[in-house]
Design goal:
two-stranded antiparallel ribbon; 70% helix
Amino acid sequence: MDRLRMRTTLLIPLLILSFGCTVISLLVIRRIVQQQTQTNLASDLQHSVKTYRNLQHQQRELLARESALLADLPSLKSLMTTYDQRTIEDGGVEFWQVSGSDFFALLDQKGSLIVAYNRGPARRSMELFSALSPLDIRSMNMLRERSAKPLRQRLLLLSMVE
């Protein structure tokens, strides 16, 4: 009986020590995995943000090139020199369809809105119309002063939040 007690007395502390080492090891491993996961997520997030910014920059460059090409078309230039709103409205539809954009607006040299086209409902078109009104002549002149290029070669991005 004394021998059984001695085994039990030795076995229980060894089991507790083994269990304690296992728990401590698991906690250390858990902490290391958490840190590595956070580091990997932060790295992936930075990479995603960089990729998004790169794509956004490329898209803006593409839109700027597209609008510059569209603005330099002789047929659009001749249409805009008519200064007749109905003629510009009728002829502008073709350019809007060619551009493939959801919203297309033609402005005169002073920055006044002549016509705007929208793929959405008419109510939405009026909202976009009113959103353009803050872009008055002062802001257009400010754009002209910042750039050596004429206003017709500048791209204005407009976004609406519903």
